[in-house]
Design brief:
With about 120 residues, this protein is an alpha+beta fold. The chain is about 50% helix and about 15% strand. It is built from 4 helices and 4 strands; from the N terminus they run H-H-E-H-E-E-H-E.
Length: about 120
């Protein structure tokens, strides 16, 4: 499981705060553990599993931000004292099925995952 230093130094992540990283990383690790139970998961190179967990952690952070109204499609904006409002309509599928697809895609960027 990667730590925050790996996330910022090796993965070059910047979207997640140090306080939120352990919680989100644990959730990403649980999803990867599930993949390992139902698929054959191989690490094509050293460190690939940590990179996959970081990518999944970033995705989980993005889903949370959209669900909390902190990100997503901008519905209105103002220039004069900088005001931005995010709406519920997004181009990102945040349904459970959409999140599962994105997490699998993130893991597949670094790991070889197949039925076997």
């Amino acid at each position: 499981m990667p730590d925050y230093q790996f996330y910022i130094q090796d993965y070059l992540g910047s979207a997640i705060s140090e306080e939120d990283f352990p919680r989100l990383c644990k959730r990403a690790g649980e999803v990867l553990a599930r993949y390992k139970r139902i698929y054959t998961v191989t690490e094509p190179e050293s460190g690939a599993e940590k990179m996959a967990v970081c990518a999944m952690t970033d995705a989980l952070s993005g889903f949370e931000a959209i669900q909390n109204g902190e990100a997503g499609a901008i519905q209105s904006a103002a220039i004069g004292s900088v005001s931005v409002n995010y709406g519920t309509s997004t181009a990102v599928d945040i349904s459970p099925k959409g999140q599962a697809r994105e997490l699998y895609r993130c893991a597949s960027l670094y790991l070889d995952i197949y039925r076997g």
